[in-house]
Every structure is written in C-alpha cells, then in structure tokens.
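EI: anyone free to look at a 141-residue chain?
SC: sure, send it
EI:
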Amino acid sequence: MLALLGTFLYFLGDALTESGKPRRAPSAESLPSQEPTVTASPTPAGTDAEEDVRIAGCTVDSVTAWPSARMEMVNGSGAAADYVVTVEFVDGDGARVTDGIVGVVGLAPGRTAKKKAQGLGEAPRDTKCRITGVHRTPAAG
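SC: here you go
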C-alpha cells in the first residue's frame, strides 16, 4: 500500500514540475470567466413562421406509392433563418399514413426556397398533405 502511495506521489510531483521548475497556476485575470455568456439572437421581425411556409403540391408517386409534398418557404423575417417543417400525409378519411420533414439552412430575408418533404411507405392515391409544424430559428453567423 505504501508503495502504491509513493508511486502516486512520484507521478503527481512529476506532473507538477516541468524541467525542474514548479508549474504556476494561471492568475485569475488569465482564466476564462466562469459566468455563462448569453448572446442575444436576432429576433426575427415580420411574419409568423407558419405564414412563411405553404404546400405547393401534394402527390403520390405512381411507381413507389410514396407520398411527397412540394414545399415553398419564403423568409418573412428580418434576418437569415433556418427552417424545419414537418408534414403529415393523411388518407381520404383523415387518418395519418406517414410523415415527412424538410429543412432549409440560412434562408435570407425575402428569399424563397423550394424543397420536397418525402413520406416513407405506401399511401393511397387520395392522400392529402398538411403542415404539422414550422420551426424558424435565426441562422448561425
């Protein structure tokens, strides 16, 4: 047990010295602040995120029978934004068949993006598309 303690102290002492000189702890001024920093994100001005997105078309592929929604997003905010849009595909009775998701990164204010939300799995020909969620966040840097 004493040998183990001695080995530990030897390596500890070796770690604390460099070239025979003891290491000095950095001064408090050179340490990064321990307080969390909060950077204010630009608050998008203009339209609500839901108003920025619309379904431009809803189809079921004739070969795979998988549904898809052609989405159009117009950034109505005052800053570049990222969008995540979820779409639900429902049959003629309104029962959910599958879901899809689409995203856009760094869409400039006033610009338009056209993307496709793809559903996975077979769907009936009378499938309809509906937006179930729109999330808009300020684009990074």
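EI: The domain at 49-138 is CATH 2.60.40.3230 (Immunoglobulin-like).
SC: 👍
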